[in-house]
Amino acid sequence: MSIQSSSRLIQFVALVALTTAVPMWAQNGYSFLDAPSSRVGYADVSYFASAGYEALLSRTTHDYSILSARLVAADNDVPEHCRVSGVIPPEVRFELNFPSVWNGRFYMNGNGGFAGTPPENEGRQLVRDRALQHAFATAYTDTDHDSRSEPLATFAHGNLQKTIDYAFRAVHLTVLSAKELIDVYYGRGPRYSCWDGCSTGRRQGLISAQRFYEDFDGIVAGAPVLDFTNTMISYAWNGRALESSTRDLKRSSSLPSP
Fold first, then answer.
1. Which of 14, 17, 25 is nearest to 225 (CA)?
2. Residues facing residue 129 across a β-bridge
3. Is the omega angle on the peptide bond into residue 90 within 30 degrees of 0, that is, cis?
């Protein structure tokens, strides 16, 4: 293999490692790590449920369908909370968690990569539990596809609706649904709403700020995926480079030894 081909192959392998790691980085693993030293008293204000979880089951409308609502007992540092699972047409799955003692704040965390991570993912559960430990009501959406059956961007091929949901619709409608259900459960809406995202999650946060500026009072956004078109083109360029390197390798291996 030539030096140039080797260099291209190394660059491509590095890119693959980077792109496959992005969803892991975007799991918001840093969230709430410094909360104990924060000057914000997250639990200084407490609100309690004014309705039982059963009331949430009856909120199924044309806008969303509630699949389940149940009370989850306290476990270690995670307090007792109501867990709600629902679907926004056509297939936008969301999960909400309402602590029995609420600080009046709403927290939603963003996606990584091409999204599609199910709410039951271990990384998602970790972020959810950290928010619950500080008495936040939480929300999460998979943006209308499941990466286990539609990996990477395969969901977008020939499907404009899923592309729009991934781009901005799923997050916005999940916010609206979550705030409505918070009001039903606690008898009042959140006094402060915040977004937390990295990579694709930052893109989602910036789109929310531009299109739906009333959704969040504060947005934490890191490592944005902004120039999406050229980013995808660069992936194709590296794919062509790998293909060329593979041909060079096969050609050189077939040559007789000097």
1. 25
2. none
3. yes
List CB contacts of 255: < 8 A, sequence separation 6 or more: none
Whether residue 229 is contained in a domain is answered as no
Query: How many other CB atoms sit within 10 Å of the CB of residue 220?
Result: 18
- The boundaries of the domain holding residue 168 are 27-222
Residue 201 belongs to some domain of the structure: yes
| pLDDT averaged over 10-residue windows placed end to end, the chain, 258 residues | 44 41 50 80 85 91 95 94 97 97 96 93 91 96 96 94 97 98 97 94 94 96 80 86 79 64
Is the residue at 233 inside a domain? no
pLDDT for 255 = 55
pLDDT of residue 222: 85
Q: What angle do CA 142, 144, 149 make, to 5 degrees?
A: 85
Residue 46 domain-assigned (yes or no): yes
pLDDT of res. 230: 86
| Tally of domains in the chain | 1
CATH of the domain at 97: 3.40.50.1820
1, two tokens: 């293999």
